[in-house]
Amino acid sequence: MDAVNAWLVSHNFETTISILNVEFPSSLFLALLSIAPLLLFRVLGDSSSPSTVVETVITKDRRSVMKYAGPAPESSIQKSLNAAIHAPNHWLNEPWRFYRLGPKTRARLGEVNPDKEKAFANVPDMFIVTCVPSMSMKTHSLDVSKVKWDGTWGKCALEDHAATSAAIQNMMLSLASNGVGSKWMTGAMGISPSLLLDLVNADPNDEHFMGVIFVGIPATPTNSMKVPKRKNGLGGGIVEFVE
Ligand SMILES: Cc1cc2nc3c(=O)[nH]c(=O)nc-3n(C[C@H](O)[C@H](O)[C@H](O)COP(=O)(O)O)c2cc1C
Known about the structure:
This protein is α+β, with helices and mostly antiparallel strands. It has 2 domains: 2-44, no CATH class; 65-224, NADH Oxidase (3-Layer(aba) Sandwich), CATH 3.40.109.10. It has 8 helices and 7 strands, in the order αββααβαβααβαβαβ. Strands 3, 4, 5, 6 and 7 form a 5-stranded antiparallel sheet that branches. Strands 1-2 form a two-stranded antiparallel ribbon. The chain is elongated, with a radius of gyration of 26 Å. The termini are far apart. Bound molecules: flavin mononucleotide (FMN). Residues 63-64, 184-188, 211, 228 line the site of flavin mononucleotide. Pfam families: Nitroreductase.
């Protein structure tokens, strides 16, 4: 700072600047001025453009998390549920249901599968997500919810399933964008889907189990976790140009 002040004096600049009768060292303003381009780049630069942010959230920040350090802020959970219900759904019937598990139901999970009791206890929040599949109708109608599902996976039911999967992914991406980890669990719960539906009083004739979603602050930042390799990448017939 002495060197900066000496330079200011030798160039006939004041060593302090008065703002609202408060004296600030001129060197502070010089320092701010020198990092201004960097700050501007950070704000306007490509690294913070929406597409770059979305890509980072999708490919780096969202990872399946098993170990948690604590509960997610309630505001992040609410945002994620709002993101979930904005998923595309062909029949505009919002076929998803999110059951947030309270302490009693959480305790039941451990009773039903004692082998996983400890692992379950480490998870700060859990949601059981179900889909309410609808019947395909002969006539094309948007009011599919009026006809009760008969348990068959027709066109509408499959599309409801797809929409609910999109809702879950929206939820997990929203959580990731707020530094919250999640994990979609099915078989590894070691509890049958019918029992999980029963735990949340969901009628298996009306609802299909989609998964249990673990939620919480990750013990390790997700962007430093190992990415399970996408073996096929964009090659291997995954993406092909079809004329
Ligand atoms: C429908 C579905 C069910 C899943 N069920 C399980 C599960 O039962 N146990 C588990 O360890 N992971 C489960 N996962 C998470 C995957 O194992 C995980 O997404 C995969 O290893 C890729 O890792 P990433 O999510 O970090 O990219 C499930 C994922 C999906 C989409």
